[in-house]
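Figure 6 in text form: structure in, sequence out.
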């Protein structure tokens, strides 16, 4: 039960919204909601429908973006320093030594 007029207004507003929302179709319910709230209501596939391929990729983390690409295509996306990150330094030194011998 409402303690103040402010509580009474809030409760009345909530009751009215609940009654009103039950009469609306799903699209009408989403109008006026925060975009993040709207996105939570859709599964990931539904969110991607209608987007061009570039927009679809923006939502994926970098690892997911590279899945399915040929190794050469994956390597083109990284500069030389990024390709070396995470490699064992001994492997890098061995590769550099081989390159020096070959050239």
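Output sequence:
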């Amino acid at each position: 039960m409402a303690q103040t007029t402010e509580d009474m207004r809030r409760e009345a507003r909530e009751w009215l919204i609940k009654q009103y929302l039950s009469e609306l179709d799903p699209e009408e319910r989403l109008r006026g909601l925060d975009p993040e709230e709207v996105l939570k209501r859709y599964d990931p596939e539904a969110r991607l429908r209608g987007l061009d391929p570039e927009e679809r990729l923006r939502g994926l983390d970098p690892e997911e973006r590279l899945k399915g690409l040929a190794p050469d295509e994956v390597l083109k996306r990284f500069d030389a320093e990024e390709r070396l990150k995470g490699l064992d330094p001994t492997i890098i030194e061995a590769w550099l030594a081989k390159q020096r011998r070959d050239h």
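Caption detail: The mean pLDDT is 73.
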